[in-house]
Amino acid sequence: MKKTNRTRDFVEVVMNVIFFTAGMAAILFTALITVYLFISGLPAIGEIGILEFLFGTRWASTADEPSYGILPFILSSFYGTAGAVLIGVPVGLLTSVYLSKVAGPRTARVVGGAVELLAGIPSVIYGLIGMIVLVPAVAELFDLASGATLLAATLVLSVMILPSIVSASVTALNAVPPEYEQASLALGATQMETYFKVSAPAAGSGIAAGIVLGVGRAIGEAMAVMMVAGNVANMPGLFRSVRFLTTAIASEMGYSSGLQRQALFSIALVLFLFIMALNGFLNRVLKGGRHHD
Amino acid sequence: MTERRKWFNVLASVLVYAAAGLTLLLLAVIIGFILIKGLPEVNWSLLTSVPSVIRNVRGILPYIVNTLLVVLLSMAIVLPLGVCAAVYLNEYAKNRRLISAIEYTIETLAGIPSIIYGLVGVLVFNQKLGLGGCLISGSLTLVVMTLPTIIRTTQESLKTVHQSYREGALGLGAARWHIVRTLVLPCSLDGIVSGCILAIGRIVGESAALLFTAGTGKVLANSLIRAYTSSGATLSVALYMAVSEEGDFATGYAIATVLMVLVLVLNLLARLAQTKLKREM
Lengths: 293, 281
Prior knowledge:
Chain A is mainly alpha-helical. Chain A has helices at residues 2-48, 50-55, 71-102, 105-120, 123-142, 150-160, 162-174, 178-186, 191-202, 204-220, 223-228, 245-253, 258-292; strands spanning 59-60, 67-68.
């Protein structure tokens, strides 16, 4: 009896250690990524000069006199994301209201399933569709030599961020206490007025979280943007070929060396800091929402 | 009712239905387009041959095999790691600050763009550990990337196991590990399985994190070790290479069709897992 107890205790201790180690994995990985990005990203920034790097408008990494200004990438990422949010948020929000309030259970399953599927489609497929359908359409519509522009990238991104916005918003809208809606309806407001003027504001923090998640997805997307944005280091313009922060890394990673390669790590560091700031913001939005309740 | 309110009602209803319709339409267009363009390109010889420019053979077999190998290795590592981490968070950890620190890092990992995973993967696995561009590097990178998915879904599911079950078992004198093994884990099987399916979906669709870690190799290795230690493109990476770098749209459509079918099947499996494995409580 005593012996079995001892084996049991031993197993307990071993499992304790295993679970604890696994639990630490996420901290370890995050620390590793952060440290590596700083170590490999800072030298090039130091060499180029932080102002020159962040606000330089010319990226010519392979020129005789190379110039490493990433403002075009920062602004392209920013405009592309903002555009995607501008298109994606209204569509996503309206779809969420439909899913959460208007649709019957069966149609909700169909539309909800469609949103889930959209989330599961690989970004290369979005890129492929963008290349074949959107890029020629943009060229045709606006009479351009090439349709591979910021506009095409924005449109692709606006579809890609839909699922993030919709799933977070639907969860938030479903959680609105029915008493709010009943009170509003009893006071004579119509259903639509109730959904948009009572339910949506009450679900505000959840919806905001969905938007922030969508922004994160848009800023971080590389391959789909690479395939439709033309991939030229221009300052952004709606009808210009552009590079995002992500595609700037991806397009030169394969063959770069020396300072050029280090500069790519610096771009990754900038991107990482953006995402971290966004995460911090997201946390605050969610916590603020909870506080409000 | 004033004229303005009437207009608001009509307009809002129209917009709500239009948005839902648009979402459905987008999905239909994407799936329909890929299948219409791609299905004619897919045939048995394409699925079972190795591409060769010299012999003028088109084929996607190496990509299918590579995808499978990457999924297997990544899942073999991330599944135990993620489930154990979730169990630690939910059953073992007592220190509130440690728990919230771990949860914060999980959120952070979930938000990091895949291209950054690819870049750090190159730095750590390809260079620091000297693995070079190979399927192992790619798989390890994806382990880190999919870890948050597994932890979160498992944790979600662990939380729904009634506290009274644990208390009952503890009261009967069961040790913690015994409770986890015989009670908590079996009860949260549905969450673990759907987390797995989600993670596999991410791995199958991932391209940016694999492009530089696993490389773009097109050959079929003759042994498992060879396969894992040499560069190889998965389906998604191969799709990007075919379309963007080589302008080979026929192969691109074919790969896209295979990917699309995989995504649809995984989606279906996830639904099945949610309904069939749901325990009665």
